[in-house]
């Protein structure tokens, strides 16, 4: 359910030459840049970047940065970067400098399964010469740090096997750690939600409702708060429906005063070859307004053109 799919009859030399011509001389043809880069997959865009480097002896991202600006530049550069490297850059930005953007850390780390996390961890250390877990631990604390550490160290089960009896046991453990006791035993929530595979967690959550009468979301909201609650809810929501989760994130990025452009760009670009079509459907179902119309109202100029070309 991607909005960007591979272009048939892809001609890397032709695309690279056309892009170079669009950036040469006086002025830049932004429409050509948008037309090419929003209608090729990331693999095809990597081929174009490699052609720039090897055949034109130029750096595509440097050329684009010299010609573009603002959020339009941000979208185009995000499209050119390899997906995992782009997410690593977003994680680094969330932790670099004064303050920490916990929402971005939670979105990227808690929404992905183990295979994706392993790629992110390896790429981060390769690019930034620092372990992601170490950097994250220096920027967060408490139960949030413990949960994110469990996820980043690859403790989640990769088997995709489900076990009904174990699901009942884990659901009971969750109940006894929260609703079934005075106070909350947070480490139990972290251990189960960071260790079990997504299919097993889905079964555990079903069993939890049978035991408690409440959904796991209701229980978490009753027992916890703050960034730790947001992180656990992200896991739950992404197990149930990643498109619904990302639709909510997009709505939050645009609703109210101002626009969270970094989140808007990150989700639209990073999900464009995964499930952006489904995210569009969820957005309209939840908010009775299309994602396209919302983006049109919150952005402008070539920035808007580029986002709308990706959303389609």
Give an account of the 3D structure.
- With 312 residues, the chain is mainly alpha-helical.
- The chain has helices at residues 12-23, 30-37, 42-54, 60-67, 70-80, 83-95, 102-110, 114-128, 132-139, 142-152, 164-177, 186-195, 198-212, 216-223, 226-240, 242-254, 261-270, 276-287, 291-298, 301-311.
Model regions low in confidence, pLDDT < 50 over at least 5 residues: none
Amount of helix: over 70%
What is the ordering of alpha helices and beta strands?
A: HHHHHHHHHHHHHHHHHHHH
| Whole-angstrom Rg | 21 Å
Biggest sheet features: none
Number of strands: 0
Protein structure class: mainly alpha
Number of helices: 20
The shape is elongated
How far apart the termini lie comes to 12 Å
Features:
312 residues; mainly alpha; 0% strand; elongated
Entry summary:
By secondary structure, the protein is an all-alpha fold. It has 20 helices and no strands.
């Amino acid at each position: 359910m991607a909005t960007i799919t591979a272009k048939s009859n892809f001609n890397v030399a032709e695309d690279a030459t056309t892009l170079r011509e669009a950036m040469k001389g006086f002025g830049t043809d932004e429409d050509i840049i948008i037309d090419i880069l929003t209608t090729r997959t990331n693999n095809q865009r990597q081929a174009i970047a490699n052609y720039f480097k090897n055949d034109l002896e130029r750096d595509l991202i440097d050329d684009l940065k010299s010609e573009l600006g603002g959020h339009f530049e941000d979208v185009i550069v995000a499209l050119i970067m390899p997906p995992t490297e782009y997410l690593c850059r977003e994680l680094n930005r969330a932790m670099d400098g004064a303050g920490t953007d916990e929402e971005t850390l939670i979105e990227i780390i808690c929404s992905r399964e183990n295979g994706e996390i392993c790629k992110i961890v390896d790429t981060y250390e390769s690019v930034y010469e620092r372990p992601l877990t170490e950097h994250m631990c220096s920027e967060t604390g408490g139960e949030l740090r413990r949960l994110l550490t469990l996820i980043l160290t690859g403790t989640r089960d990769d088997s995709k096997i489900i076990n009904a009896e174990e699901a009942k046991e884990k659901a009971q453990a969750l109940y006894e750690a929260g609703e079934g006791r005075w106070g909350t035993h947070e480490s139990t929530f972290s251990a189960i939600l960071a260790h079990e595979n997504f299919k097993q967690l889905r079964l555990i959550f079903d069993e939890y409702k049978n035991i408690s009468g409440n959904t796991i979301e209701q229980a978490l909201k009753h027992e916890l708060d703050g960034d730790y609650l947001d992180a656990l809810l992200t896991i739950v929501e992404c197990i149930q429906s990643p498109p619904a989760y990302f639709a909510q994130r997009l709505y939050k990025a645009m609703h109210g005063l101002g626009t969270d452009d970094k989140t808007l760009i990150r989700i639209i670009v990073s999900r464009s070859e995964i499930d952006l079509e489904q995210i569009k459907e969820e957005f309209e179902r939840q908010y009775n307004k299309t994602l396209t119309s919302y983006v049109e109202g919150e952005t402008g100029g070539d920035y808007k053109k580029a986002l709308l070309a990706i959303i389609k």
